Write the structure tokens for this entry.
Amino acid sequence: AGVNEFTFNLPKSGNTVTFKLLTHGDEKKIENEIKGLQKINPNGSYDVTTRLKYTITSINGDRDQKSIRDFIDNYMLAPDARALREYYNKIQPDVNMKYIPEDGSCTEEGITIPITLNFFWPDIRL
């Protein structure tokens, strides 16, 4: 309890990974690593794999960072990566900005409340 670590079985390969929810510090490291990789190869796409390298903390119990990076670069199947990202998004804390009026004047989907300057300062008149 209280540990930022979750377990997920990759559906296609059957491997078991543990992963963590990313912190602001992790996001900054990811951003810097992607910038460095883009300097080497501007046409490359690094967002998904770099993000996974910071998210996954073990593969089948192996916590060695070099092994994790090798697995992600060379052995992780696209359907497994997609399934892990979908699960991550499902369990990640978030704020629901939907409002469903009780008078039935709206569908079940509700109304999304926009977060703009007017939300914080309604008298700003923008």
